[in-house]
Design goal:
The chain has helices spanning 19-30, 59-68, 76-83, 99-112, and strands at residues 4-10, 37-43, 69-71, 92-97, 115-120. The chain has 123 residues and is of the alpha/beta class. Strands 1-2-3 form a 3-stranded parallel sheet. A two-stranded parallel ribbon has the order 4-5. Helix 1 (19-30) crosses helix 2 (59-68) and helix 3 (76-83) packs parallel to helix 4 (99-112). The mean pLDDT is 77.
C-alpha cells in the first residue's frame, strides 16, 4: 500500500486562487483516490479564513477543501511522527522551497529515518 501526502505551504490564501493550484486542490478534494493521496495546505500569513479561498456552489466540496486547510507554519516533526507511524513503508521526504524550509525538512527526515531529496528556490 502506498500513500502520498503533499504538505503545501503558501504565504497567503491568494496564492491558492492561482488557476493551477486552485484546479489541483479542487480535483483532489473531489476524488477520494482510495485514500492514497492527501494534501495538507498551510497558509503562513494573511487572513485565517479558508472559505475566502473557494468560489464554490458544491457544499461537500467546500467542506473537503476546508478540511485540507491549516493556518500557521507546519510542525514537520509532528506531521512526520503522525504520518510515518504507519510502519512497513519506505518513506521519502521531497522538499521544494526556500532554504529555511529545506533545512527543517532535512532535519525532520533524518530524525525519522526517511530518505530525503531537495529542490531549493527563493523568490
Amino acid at each position: 500500500w502506498s500513500k502520498v501526502i503533499l504538505v503545501w505551504v503558501v504565504r497567503e490564501t491568494g496564492l491558492l486562487q492561482v488557476k493551477l493550484f486552485n484546479d489541483t486542490l479542487k480535483a483532489v478534494a473531489a476524488n477520494d483516490l482510495d485514500g492514497c493521496f492527501e494534501i495538507k495546505v498551510f497558509v503562513t500569513r494573511g487572513e485565517n479564513n479558508s472559505s475566502s479561498c473557494w468560489d464554490l456552489e458544491d457544499g461537500h466540496l467546500a467542506v473537503r477543501l476546508s478540511s485540507m486547510m491549516n493556518f500557521g507554519r507546519p510542525d514537520l516533526d509532528q506531521l512526520l511522527k503522525q504520518d510515518l507511524s504507519e510502519g512497513g513503508m519506505d518513506n521519502l521526504i521531497f522538499a521544494c522551497g526556500p532554504e529555511a524550509l529545506i533545512t527543517s525538512a532535512s532535519q525532520a527526515a533524518t530524525k525519522f529515518g526517511a530518505d530525503f531529496h531537495e529542490e531549493i528556490f527563493e523568490f
